[in-house]
Each structure stands twice: as C-alpha cells, then as structure tokens.
Amino acid sequence: MIGRLAITVACVLGGVAFLGGVADAHANYVRSNPASDARLVKPPAEVRIEFSEPPDPKGSDIQVLDTSGKRHDKGDIAPSGDPNGLKVSVGPIGEGGYLVAWTATSAVDGHTTKGNFAFVVGSGPLPAVPDVGASAPPPEPLEIAGRALSYAGIALGLGTAFFVLFLRVPAESEETRRESMLLLAAGALIFVGSVALIAEQGSKLPPRLGALLAIRAFTGIVLAALSVAPPLARMRPVAALANGAAVMTLGALSIDRPRRVIALVAGLAAALTATLVSHATALGSLKSMVLDFTHVVAISVWTGGVVALLVIILLRARENTPEQRRALGATVWRFSVTALVAVALLVTAGTLQAFDRLVLIDDLYETPYGIALAVKIAMLVTALAIGALNLLRWGPRLRAGLAARAALVRDTIAESAIFVVIILAAAFLTAFAPPAQPSAAAYDQTQHVSGLRLEMLVASAQPGRNRYVLRVHQGLAPVQSAEKVAFRFTMIEHDMGEQELVAVERAPGEYVADGSPTAMFGTWRIKAIVRVTGREDVTTVFTLPVGAGGTGTSVVITAAPYTLIVFTDPSQAQAGAPLAIFVVVIGQDGSPVTGKAIRATFSGPSAQAPVDAVEDAATLGPGRYKIAIAALDAGAWKVTIGIGNEVSGTYSLEVSR
Which CATH number is correct for 31-121, 2.60.40.1220, 2.60.40.1470, 3.10.150.10, 2.60.40.10? Predict the structure, then answer.
C-alpha cells in the first residue's frame, strides 16, 4: 500500500515537473523612445525599442508611418547600444500622429514577434492602433517537424549512450548491432531536424542560432558515424581464437567504451544546444539555464533509455531458465532506479521553474502554450504509471526467476509510444510563447472570474491621463461585442468618490478606455465590469499603484495572502540622505490591511540594522506603513519586508551616489 502511494505521489510530482520544460525565446516589446502614446514637442531623430530578449537586426524591422501609411524612417536598423535594443533613424517629419510598426526576430532562436505603438508630434490625436502587447505568428509545420525530430534524436542518442555505458554493456554482437542501429537513427533524426530548422528560418536565420543548429547537426553526424562498423564486430575473429565469451566481453568493454563515451558526449552537446536556444538563455539566467539543461538530460536518459532497454535487451532476451530471468530482472532493476533518479531531477528542476511559465493555473487550458503543456503532463503521468507497473510487478517477478518478459515488452512499447506524443507536445510547447512574458504595459495583471480570463493592462503608472485595456477571453476565444465593459475607479488612501470609464472594443476581445480618473498619486482600485448577452455581469477588482510621494513610482510585491505596494520618498534614494520606504498592505479582497507589525531587514553594501515600520492611518491613510531610514550607502540593496511572523517579500532598492 505504501509503495503504491509513493508511486502515485511520484506521478503527480512528475507531472508538475514538466512545467519546467524548455520554452524557446520570444523578443517582446518592453519600452521605447519615444514611448508608446508619447506626445512630443519636437520630432524625434530616431526611434529606439527595447525588447525582452536580444533581437537580431538582420531579421527585424522598425517602420515609422504617418496616418496615410507613408514611411518616414530611413530603414537603417541597427543595435541601439542596449543588448536587447534596436534603433532606426527618422527623417524630417511634421506635426501629427505616427505609428511605429515593428517586427523582431529573436537572436536566440529565430522566433518572430510583431507589434506597434503610436506617438504624436504636437497636439494632434493619436492614431487608433494597439499600443500594448505583441503577437507571435503561429509556428510553421516545418518548424514543428524540425523541433520534434531534433528532440527525438537527442533523447534517443543520449539515452542509448547512457544505457550501454552505465546500465547494461552489450555482451553479444547482436546487441551491439542493435545499439549501433539506435545511434544511427538518433544521428539521422538530429541531423534532419537541424536542417529543417535552418531551412525554416531561411534568410532571416540569426548567426548565433545558425551556429548552434550547425553544431547540433554535427553531433548528429558524429552519432551516425559512430554506428558504422563498430569495433566489436571486428573483434569476433579475436574472440573466436581466444575461444571464450569472457574474452569477447572484455574486448567489447575495452574497445567499445571510447566509442560509447564519444556518443554520450555528442548527446550531451546536442542537449546543450536545446538549452542555449531557450527562454532561460535569452533572459541571461544562469540558474534557469542549469535547470533547463538538467531537464533535457533527465528526460533524455529516461525516454531514450526505455527505447534502448526495449530494442537492445527485451526484444531478444531469453528467459528459458531462472538464471536468465534473474539476469534480465537485474537489468530492469538498474534501469528502474535510474528512471526514478531522472524523475526526481525532473521534479526538482520543474518545481523551481514552474511559476515562471504560467500566470494562472487556468493557462493550462486557455492558452496554446498551456494546452501543449497539459498534454505533456498527462502523457508523462501515464508513462510514469507504466514505469511503476514495471518496477513493482514485472521486475520482482523476473528477479524471483518467474517469466515476465512478454509483459515488459508490451509495456515498454506502450511507454515508447507515449514518449513520441510527449516529444510532439514539446515541439509545439517550445514554439509557443509562455503566458508569463514581459509586457509593454506598466501594469499587467490577469484574473480568472466566472469562466472568463480578464487581463488588465495600464500604459503608465504615473498620474494623469492614461489608457486602460481589458482583454477578455473565454477559453481560447476572445469575447467579442460585449454589451458593456466599464471601469470604476476608487482610491484606497482617500475618499475621492467613484469615477467610471466605459471602454470600447478596439480589437476582438480587447476593450480600451482613455481618461484621467487616476489623477493622484496613491493606490487605486479598478472594478472591471463585463456585461455579456445572456449572462450576469462579471466583475473583479484590480489594484493599481500610481506613483508615490509626488515623484516616485510603486512596485507591487506578492506575499500571499497579501499584496504589498512599496515606494520610496524621494523616489531616487541618495547615499547619505534620509529615506522613507512606504508599504501599503492589501488583503485578498482588495482592501487595506491595518494593525500589522512590519519590519524591514537590509542586505547590501554595508551593515544596516532592521527598522520597524510605523502605521499612521491619520497621516498616511489606511493600511499604509512608513519605514524611516537615516541613510544608506550607495549601491544595490535588498530590503526584506516581513509582516509579523506570517510572510515576507523582497524589495530591490538602488541607492545612487
């Protein structure tokens, strides 16, 4: 009973682990100069755009268009000096509204994203175009095929090499022939998949991506070459002269081992290329890169090892005697232990990355990325269940000298078929952008209410006129032609009354309102109301921090069940000068939370004693706490804000000289 419970837990955790799967890169708009919706006194000489990941200038474009569609940029796309930035020169332009239409090709993996924003020179109206977010075209079939073939080859090559090196050294020429057949298949899959990805990119292939795909193709050639005329086949005359199976086995161990080590290295190199074109690499996160590589290696050792066990051992194994069955059972046991270690690594890597990919758990069925991920999870759990059956039932039977090879063959064939589906899902998964992506909006929050996915985007976090966008989806489909979408604004700190803006549909499922309801620094609640024909109104509340202290901007920190809104006064902390850190504590219902003991602890360039916050509702407003600091030294600080003994959140603070 305990063993079955443990396997069930492993299945569930293994499903979660796949949340940590590699996600390839997408270069999304983050900010620009001129900014989105900017109103300029004089025309700009150039347009600069910063993306979430490094773009490749060769495959990217920035067009500056007037309202008639005439181009005014000079087409001289170049790096802006920022690692993630591009710029284009702008010719002489007059007053009026202009549209910047951009296309960015990720330098990491070649994915293309598109978007646009507007600015105005003078006092004219803004062009009516989308100004937040970006869209990535759906992947081409050739891209999906290339990814699937590459991933299958990496898993098969790495898994086979690991299996024959560490789990069961082939002791017969027929086993070595089957090993060579698997390496040849792995090399062919990697090579063909890499060539397909290069062909899909065509002329827009970024140099870095081209180099990595070329390396991946070369590893495929190496694996295929290692499968031709293996040394063991040439050892048979020597073995015959020695007239002993032990000598033949010794020859296989001593001569074939270097070939197998090279195959393992080639498989690891191919796996590394998958990580080097991933989202983690694009963001420059060493931790995520290590976790991604661990994920690829672990799943390859498991899935490729299952195929190696099936093809090299099980399909031709003899179990006529109890000794043969026990020997086969020992091999199955060693592989089962290896598979459990691989699953443990998947769980560890996946758990550490899980929340970097999704915004809501509903993303698993409401986004293309999430659906591909859900398929992967379901298939993984099924494969784990089959593996558990092999471990708990058929393996012990063999080790007891009882027949079970036929059942093992049946189950490993089913497991291998499931892995094919997992690899196809991975190909789709890495071609889609994860829901959790950097946004062009200053505020971007998503909630799921009454079956609707509501994403609120606010262009600016500063007081004054602003643009409020609500994206409404039901499942994968945008909710179009809603009877009414309205935003009602109230301020938390002061009673400013209630103001309402009615949004208009700008694009399918995207409703926009412009106005100045958040004209003061402080914390605002936006009650979004969506009225759809035939159903009750759907409402939810978003908490929007707008500036602070007259000059600053706020940062939202999640410390469940609370939301902390943190800002400083002055907004730019200066070394040696007094500083106040304000913390607004918001509960799950969107209301300020009072009566909490809050303490700030500091980590930075020098020692700083912890400071307790002071709550002063009369002066600061309800739920607002002040942390007064005499002075801090210049440099980067981490401020851990603890709420009693309940929870804490970390605030990053840069103190200038």
Answer: 2.60.40.1220
